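Progress against Task 2.4 (sequence-to-structure conversion) is shown through the following example record, which the project officer requested during the mid-term review.
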Amino acid sequence: MMTTSQIIWIVVIAVAALVLIGLVVGSMRKKSLADNHARADQLRHKADASAAGLPDTSARAERAEAEAEHKRLEAQRAEDQAAAARIEAEQERARHEDQIRAADRLDPKVDHKSTDYSPEVADPSGPPRRTTDGDIDGDTDGGIHRA
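Structure tokens generated for the chain above:
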């Protein structure tokens, strides 16, 4: 059987062990907090060092955005010019067709009242068209070309 003094010594040793364990755990926690604080300071210094390049990066981004906007405006102007040129070309083709229709109304060789009538509009890049009698269209001197 254990004596009272043995029980007291066991309790004292157990309490001392718990106090020692508590001190070790507290010391480790304090060390961990200090390490975390040191790492946080290092990260802040690193972030501050890289922040020096932020104005340059921001300025490059703003320049790139301005250039992109400028190119969008140029592209829009080019589209507008192309659309205007297409409209002008269509108007010129319509005027040309009107002239051909007027000529066909005057020409006794052309039946402009026929249901299948369609003005033969010359392709400016192609050869001149010939009428039904073999003459070159618009040629009034029997095929003789004068320079």
